[in-house]
Every structure is written in structure tokens, then in C-alpha cells.
Amino acid sequence: MTDDAALEELRFLTRALRAHLDWQVVTGATGLERAPREVAVTAVAGAAQASAPQPPPAVLSAAPASVLAAAPVIAAAPGDLASSAQGEPRRLEVLAEIVRACTRCGLCKQRKQAVFARGTGSSGVCFVGEGPGADEDAQGLPFVGKAGQLLDRMIEAMGLGRDEVYVCNIVKCRPPDNRKPEPDEMAACMPYLNEQLELIAPRVIVALGATAVQGLLGTGEGIMRMRGKWKSYRGQIDVMPTFHPAYLLRTPAAKREVWEDLQEVLRRIGRSVPSRR
Q1: For residues 140 and 132, what is the distance between their CA atoms, to the nearest angstrom?
Q2: Scanning 108, 110, 120, 194, which has the fewest C-beta atoms within 10 Å of its C-beta?
């Protein structure tokens, strides 16, 4: 092992240890689990997590089970942002640190950095896309390229602030050449997204494109047929499937349909639809 490789491994172990210690601070737990229970996750199908509280992860574990255990969820009704405990932002920070050190699938080999999320979700709206592109990989934030700039204009047209919504992706690392994520890559990353949604508890999820719909709802039905029809994430959170901003850049005529979908989102969260200039 080279000196650089040894140093990088030491940094990874330090981050993992810090994440475990943070988990103990947040939850009040102590010690390590001798025989951690497995958490069944059907990632692409978005199956429900095991209902029983999960034990803390081993310090060096990076499996999805450790993700779910490392940031335990406080039950909150979807959209009930006022009921969120003060510790939830800290648990999101812990989860983000775990994601940055993740090596669960091959996408980690070529990434510059993992891309976790942006925004607070205080409006009750969460946008979920497919995965990071080159700009996102470079900056470490989702939707900052041309498609992201269009998404920001869509958010502004809704009368919402850029930081009022929560924005994330199905996969946290950039697929090579911006290809669609493979099923095993989505499966490795879905527990992170499931945990984010539990902690943010949005009232509405806007699923941007077919990959987002597939990951959230576990369906192979095309976005053309799903678009504009209300669905449900785990029977708890309303989902509005619509076109990805990257598609709108190629097909500007579809912007009208997306605006119709976003108006429905506003009505669902009890906001008036701004007049278009």
C-alpha cells in the first residue's frame, strides 16, 4: 500500500469513527453491537424498512444497514415540519458524512465527491432527480448545471425560495458519461434517500423523470404515462411525477405540462398559484 493510499484509508476510518460517535451523541446510545441485525431493503422497489429500531453499525461498516442505524428516525407525520426534533438536522449531517465515505457501488471509483442534497425543505416540497452530472460532481451540490438553473426558475415560478425546497437524487455519485444508473447502483443508494425523506418529512415529492419515479415507486411504467398523476411514496407522502429539467431543455414545449404539474403541487400544499407574467 502506498503512502497516499494509507493516508486516504486513515481518513476514511476517521470519518467512519466520527460518524459513529455522532450517532451516539444524537441517540444517547453507547457501545457497539456485537451481532448487528440485518435490515431488509428492497431498494429499487422502495420496500418498507424493518419497523423495529435498528442497532448501531460497526464502526467501519458502510452497508445500507449501517446507514439506517447510524441516523435513526424520529417518527413524524409527513409534512409536519414543526414536529421535527432539533436533532434531525444533526442526523442529516451524520448521514451526509456517511454518504461522502460510501463505497457501496462502483460509482464511487470515478466520483470527485458524493452529492447529498441542498435546501431545507421548509416549504414541504422535495424534488428528487436521477443523479449528479459533471457540474454537480465538481461542486458537491445537486442541480447546479443547466438543468439545475431551469429547476431554480421552476421553483421561483412557484413562488418558492430556492432554499425552501429540498433537492436530492436517487444516486449520490455521478454515473459515467451521465448514463442512467444501473439497478444495483440504485439499490445501493436508495436507503440513503429513504432516510433523507424520513428526516425531512415533506408533504409532496416531485419526482423528476423516469429514474426518480422508478426508485421512489418501484414501477417500470414510463414517465409519459405517469406524468401528472398523483402517486404515493410508501403510502405516506404524495408524489407528483413530472419531466426532468434536462428533458425540458431538449423539449421546451413540454414546459407547459410541467407547469400544470407544479400548480397541482402548490394546491396540494395549500399555496396559491402565482400569476404568470
Answers
A1: 9
A2: 110
User: How far are the Cα atoms of 118, 165, 224, 239 from residue 121, in angstroms, in the given order?
Assistant: 9, 4, 27, 15
Cα(267)–Cα(171) distance, rounded to whole angstroms? 29
Closest C-alpha among 257, 255, 258, 260 to residue 273: 260
pTM: 0.72
β-bridge pairing 204-208 and 125-129? parallel
Query: Is 182 in contact with 142 (CB distance < 8 Å)?
Result: no
Low-confidence ranges of the chain (pLDDT < 50): 20, 22-86
User: DSSP character for 181?
Assistant: P
Rounded to whole angstroms, the Cα distance separating 36 from 261 reads 43
- Domain boundaries, given as residue ranges, for the chain: 3-268
E strands along the chain, which residues?
Answer: 125-129, 166-169, 204-208, 231-233, 237-242
